[in-house]
């Protein structure tokens, strides 16, 4: 300790690196709004520079004399990399071929420059092949379940065109759609036959509460052509009309644009009269559903002996012969000032409504295989009756239109449509009634888009065309493959020697196979039931 009383301490040698940079915290000097650090400490004075007392190593930030940071600097330099910040794709491949137009049309650059991804291409092709195979399988299965559309070449002409026949004219169906003709209300010339009353209990039938359809072996149904009708011959001799036909023939002409199958009508020009006939065994009397039974629904009638008799009996039945319930209304329409048309129209039943008798027509829609139509009546009739009718209108438009036209011609107040189905798809003998629905003919005609003025326009045009022909025999044939009709001039003896094969009796026909599990013949039991007395039906 000195005299000054100040103790001097021995300074210990610092272990820190030499020339360690140190920046003191200097006060801020404010000049106006600018604030800056005082740089006097960092800048050497001019006096020191002139006297040589200043050296670069005297700077507070001189690290040349210290090797402590050499290793850190070397490590940082070794990890440094130059990065190109220009915008390029992350998937840039310098070996990728350039698909310019010149490369595309160069045959030498076909596949040699493409990237090799054969494994992925093969797998993709396999997947596409599997999808195509599955699609073809689905189409094949759908076609096997649905009915195949038959080609027009399958259809055959309803009559064999002979080489000596002379074709006079052909009329396309497109011209029929533009025709229109209005006729006044017809008058009844005569009513023959007898009618049974309709059983209203059949209106309450449902698919769950169906009734079997009886088969009648003793009742006769007559399909007599125009010139073989004794009543029409009598009316022709009395000059009651100029044109004579039946409701079946007229309905065929009226609904000709809807027809697909071939049909033919024989035209006979005798004097100033015109007769529209059909051949024996003609297609006009056959239904397009290929059912063997052609009669309407006689099972929905009350067979208690109470009938409505008209002026004359059935003109086609022999004395004591049992005939079906049918009434023939011979009605006359005025086509022109000096031209009248007489037609024989049929009604099958009568019904008392509000103390007034109403005429009914009865027809049956047949279901022989639900897989063919795609709609099962037993499941859809009770809940979706409209869908069933729409399907029938699609598949049998011509048949339903002809039934409606016949009901309009006969002046029927109601037309009854019965839904009749086979007991088994392979059994064409036994049927059941699933439902019976009634429609007013005019309302139903509007529903199926059947125009009465167009119907009579077609008849009027055909009649005017035939009245211009000479006396003789002609045939009007619908082309089997085209929507048109042709008129042929045929000899007088044509169709007179046609051989018509009569159907075999039911006893000689092949019976359907039995479906009973016990091996009992179901048809034998059914025939025994049919032979019993089933004439009493509850009204």
TrEMBL record:
It comes from the Eukaryota. Residues 283-297 are annotated as: RNA gate. Residues 116-140 have a biased composition (Basic and acidic residues). It is found in: Cytoplasm. Its main location: cytoplasm. Keywords: Cytoplasm, Initiation factor, Protein biosynthesis, RNA-binding. mRNA cap-binding component of the eukaryotic translation initiation factor 3 (eIF-3) complex, which is involved in protein synthesis of a specialized repertoire of mRNAs and, together with other initiation factors, stimulates binding of mRNA and methionyl-tRNAi to the 40S ribosome. The eIF-3 complex specifically targets and initiates translation of a subset of mRNAs involved in cell proliferation. In the eIF-3 complex, eif3d specifically recognizes and binds the 7-methylguanosine cap of a subset of mRNAs. The RNA gate region regulates mRNA cap recognition to prevent promiscuous mRNA-binding before assembly of eif3d into the full eukaryotic translation initiation factor 3 (eIF-3) complex. Belongs to the eIF-3 subunit D family. This is Eukaryotic translation initiation factor 3 subunit D.
């Amino acid at each position: 300790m000195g005299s000054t009383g100040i103790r001097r301490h021995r300074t210990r040698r610092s272990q820190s690196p030499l020339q360690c940079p140190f920046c003191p915290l200097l006060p801020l000097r404010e000049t106006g709004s600018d604030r800056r650090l005082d740089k006097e400490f960092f800048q050497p004075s001019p006096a020191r520079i002139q006297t040589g007392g200043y050296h670069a190593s005297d700077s507070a930030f001189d690290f040349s004399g210290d090797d402590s940071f050499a290793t850190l600097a070397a490590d940082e330099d070794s990890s440094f990399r130059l990065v190109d910040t220009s915008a390029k794709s992350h998937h840039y491949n310098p070996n990728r071929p350039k698909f310019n137009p010149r490369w595309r049309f160069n045959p030498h650059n076909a596949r040699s420059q493409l990237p090799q991804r054969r494994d992925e291409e093969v797998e993709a092709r396999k997947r596409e092949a599997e999808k195509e195979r599955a699609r073809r399988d689905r189409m094949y299965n759908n076609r096997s379940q649905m009915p195949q559309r038959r080609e027009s070449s399958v259809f055959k002409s309803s009559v064999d065109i002979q080489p000596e026949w002379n074709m006079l004219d052909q009329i396309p169906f497109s011209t029929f759609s533009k025709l229109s003709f209005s006729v006044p209300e017809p008058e009844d010339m005569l009513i023959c036959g007898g009618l049974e009353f309709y059983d209203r209990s059949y209106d309450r039938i449902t698919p769950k509460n169906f009734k079997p359809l009886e088969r009648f072996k003793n009742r006769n149904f007559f399909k007599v052509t125009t010139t073989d009708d004794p009543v029409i011959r009598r009316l022709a001799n009395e000059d009651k009309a100029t044109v004579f036909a039946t409701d079946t023939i007229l309905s065929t002409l009226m609904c000709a644009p809807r027809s697909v199958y071939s049909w033919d009508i024989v035209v006979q020009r005798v004097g100033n009269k015109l007769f529209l006939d059909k051949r024996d065994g003609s297609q006009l009397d056959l239904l397009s559903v290929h059912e063997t039974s052609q009669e309407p629904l006689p099972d929905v009638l009350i067979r208690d002996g109470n009938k409505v008799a008209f002026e004359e009996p059935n003109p086609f039945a022999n004395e004591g012969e049992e005939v079906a319930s049918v009434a023939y209304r011979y009605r006359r329409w005025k086509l022109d000032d000096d031209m009248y048309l007489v037609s024989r129209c049929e009604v099958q039943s009568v019904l008392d409504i509000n103390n007034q008798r109403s005429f009914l027509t009865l027809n049956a829609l047949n279901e022989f295989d639900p897989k063919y139509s795609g709609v099962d009546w037993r499941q859809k009739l009770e809940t979706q009756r409209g869908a069933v009718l729409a399907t029938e209108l699609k598949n049998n438009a011509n048949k339903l239109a002809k039934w409606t036209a016949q009901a309009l011609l006969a002046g029927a107040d109601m037309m009854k449509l019965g839904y009749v189905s086979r007991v088994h798809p392979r059994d064409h003998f036994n049927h059941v009634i699933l439902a019976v629905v009634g429609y007013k003919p005019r309302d139903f005609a509007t529903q199926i888009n059947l125009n009465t003025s167009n119907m009579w326009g077609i008849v009027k045009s055909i009649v005017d065309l035939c009245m211009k022909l000479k006396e003789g025999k002609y045939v009007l044939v619908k082309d089997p493959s085209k929507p048109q009709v042709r008129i042929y001039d045929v000899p007088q003896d044509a169709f007179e020697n046609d051989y018509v094969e009569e159907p075999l009796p039911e006893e000689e026909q092949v019976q359907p196979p039995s479906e009973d599990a016990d091996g009992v013949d179901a048809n034998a039991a059914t025939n025994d039931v049919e032979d019993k007395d089933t004439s009493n039906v509850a009204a």
